[in-house]
């Protein structure tokens, strides 16, 4: 598990995107854990330690709602797997909802990656490196 305060203080990176928010309100009622931005493109990161699938669907719907009109981007869930909720099951659960919002929003990509693969021994994966894409599950 990556403690919330630590997660928000890490230097998450993707190409030439810059940190926009780390826990502040992105729009009314929506406070993702970390947001990177370049022009009108966003990378939204959510660190979750829950097995509630509703949390993941809700987080994805909030990202989809935000990413409308000129705003586009992707969402990354960094998860702590539980015995009854693994990264693969979360990704599979999100698939029909992502398909449903397709065409209604500019959220085009959602990834799920285990926390220990994303952040291990004080090493953080860059969101645009080959290791990220080999470890993360694309919804």
UniProtKB/TrEMBL annotation:
<protein>
    <submittedName>
        <fullName>Uncharacterized protein</fullName>
    </submittedName>
</protein>
